[in-house]
Specification:
Layout: E1 4-5, H1 12-17, E2 20-26, E3 29-36, H2 44-53, E4 60-66, E5 74-82, H3 88-105, E6 109-113, H4 121-126, E7 130-131, E8 140-144, H5 154-157
Parallel strand pairs: 5-6
Antiparallel strand pairs: 1-3, 2-3, 2-4, 4-5, 6-8, 7-8
Length: 165
């Protein structure tokens, strides 16, 4: 059974133990973070299908993440699904919550394979991501936290507004 939290600050010790999870943001607010029972690889065909035919309506963003076995200092961003009406504040908020999860778990890096042409290199760089590899068409990106974690305004994303980061 999946465990769900709407207050990640109060449930930080639980999230720290989860190997895989999903962050769900709606209208700029954290709806919940759910534990996933395992990591499910995503194919390019699945990404294409969902982008073309199964994209949700509204201002929503889902981020799936996991920590590979034996690599507690690494978090992978496995999948991003945004709604047709997703606003930048919702997508950026999901990214900030992912940074918070990384900090809570003590992860030193987040890695991602970016296969969507709508997610541009300048945007990724602006958000603190760096390409892994040479060339202008690299699809492997990394977010490093070797020098510490950025300020993460979790209060802004919690529906209650009561949590402290």
């Amino acid at each position: 059974m999946n465990r769900v939290t709407t207050d990640p600050i109060a449930d930080e010790s639980l999230i720290r133990r989860w190997r895989a999870g999903r962050i769900v943001m709606r209208c700029g607010r954290l709806e919940h973070i759910a534990r996933r029972n395992g990591w499910i690889p995503v194919s390019v065909a699945q990404v294409w299908w969902q982008a073309k035919f199964a994209r949700p309506d509204g201002d929503v963003c889902h981020l799936d993440f996991h920590s590979p076995r034996g690599m507690s200092g690494v978090l992978t961003l496995d999948y991003v699904l945004s709604g047709r009406g997703a606003k930048l504040s919702t997508v950026l908020g999901a990214g900030h919550v992912l940074n918070w999860v990384a900090r809570s778990r003590g992860a030193m890096v987040i890695v991602a394979h970016v296969s969507n042409a709508s997610i541009t290199a300048p945007v990724l760089r602006r958000l603190g991501w760096e390409p892994q590899g040479d060339g202008p068409s690299t699809s492997q990106w990394i977010r490093r936290f070797y020098d510490g974690y950025p300020p993460i305004p979790m209060d802004r994303y919690l529906n209650s507004g009561a949590g402290k980061s």
